[in-house]
Structure formats: C-alpha cells, structure tokens
Design goal:
The chain has about 180 residues and is of the alpha/beta class. The protein is built from eight helices and eight strands; from the N terminus they run βααββαβαβαβαβαβα. It has two domains: about 50 residues; about 120 residues, 3-Layer(aba) Sandwich (Rossmann fold). About 25% of the residues are buried. Keywords: DNA-binding, Phosphoprotein.
Length: about 180
C-alpha cells in the first residue's frame, strides 16, 4: 500500500507552507491524487518529483564543517541533486576556497576548532557580502549563535538533519522553484 500524505503532511515534509502546496496543485506541478474532496500525496512520488526537479539545476556549494560525516552527507546529497560541492574542514580552508572560487551557497558549521562559525561568517560577509550562508548548528541558543545573529541575515539548519532538509534548504536559498 502506498504511503499517502495529506496537504499538511506534505507541506511539513517539504518544509513549505500549505499555501505553496495548493499553488503547486493549481498548476499541476506536483504529483497528487484526488480522493473524494481531498488531495493525497504518495511519498515515493514526491521523493521522485524532488529528484527530477533538481535535474539540470547546477549550483556551486561550499560546505564548511569539521565533522567528516556531515561533509560527506552534504556532498553525497547535493551531488545526487546535480550540484557541484566543495568542502572545507576549517575556516582557513574555507577562506582559501572563497577567495579562489565563486559559490552560489555556503553551509557553515557554527562550532569548529580554530576560527569558529561566527568569526568565519564575518569574514565571508567582508569577502562576498551577498553570498547566501546557511548556518548548521546543534547549538541554536549559544553565545556564538547570538554573535552571528548580530551580523546580518542568514539561514539556519539545526542538527540533526537529513537529506530532505539539505535538499530543501538548498532549493530555498538558491530560490529554485519546485517545478524547475
């Protein structure tokens, strides 16, 4: 039996509003079934739709995290979506890459040895002020997070997270529409 979701459930799964789901339904841009007077969504069809929607969309993404498992999760997930992924395990590596290459999006770990995420974020803003940055953290209420908040707008991904969180954050911050 298919794993069917409601509008509310698919909105939560995709991390968008229900209004966005209804707009996609109006344009026939999302796979759905009409059951009586309600919409239902097959989870496997939604997953396949997400994979296909990223085909041909290529962004250059820099992932900065001292944990190799986190870097690997981002690399595998984003490369499967057709993106080019560069990785840095510390602030010095990241700055080197940022000065030599253009990126469309940065995922930045907040707590790292040496140059921490707040300090690195400040340097990124000085080098590339319009570059979208998403902070990845397991410490959303920390002093370091408060320092970053004072520096300007960015996205936040709380640890733990999975593949769908990475895909959705990438699409949101690169402004890639689901029907791209």
């Amino acid at each position: 039996m298919a794993d069917l979701m409601t509008v509310r459930e698919v909105a939560e799964y995709l991390r968008v509003t229900q209004k966005t789901i209804y707009r996609l339904l109006q344009r026939n841009a999302i796979p759905a079934l009409k059951v009586s007077h309600s919409w239902r969504f097959d989870k496997s069809s939604i997953d396949e739709w997400l994979r296909k929607s990223a085909v041909g969309v290529r962004a250059s993404v820099l992932v900065i995290d001292d944990e190799s498992t986190v870097r690997s999760l981002f690399k595998e997930t984003l490369e499967d979506q057709g993106h080019a992924v560069s990785m840095a395990k510390n602030g010095d590596e990241a700055l080197e890459q940022l000065q030599s290459k253009d990126f469309d999006l940065v995922f930045l770990d907040l707590k790292m040895p040496g140059l921490n995420g707040a300090e690195l974020y400040q340097k990124i803003r000085a080098i590339k002020p319009k570059l979208p940055v998403t902070i990845i953290t397991g410490y959303p209420d920390s002093d370091t997070m408060a320092k970053v908040l004072a520096q300007g707008p960015f996205g936040v991904m709380n640890k733990p997270f999975g593949e769908m969180d990475i895909i959705n954050a990438t699409k949101n911050f690169l402004r890639i529409s689901p029907e791209a």
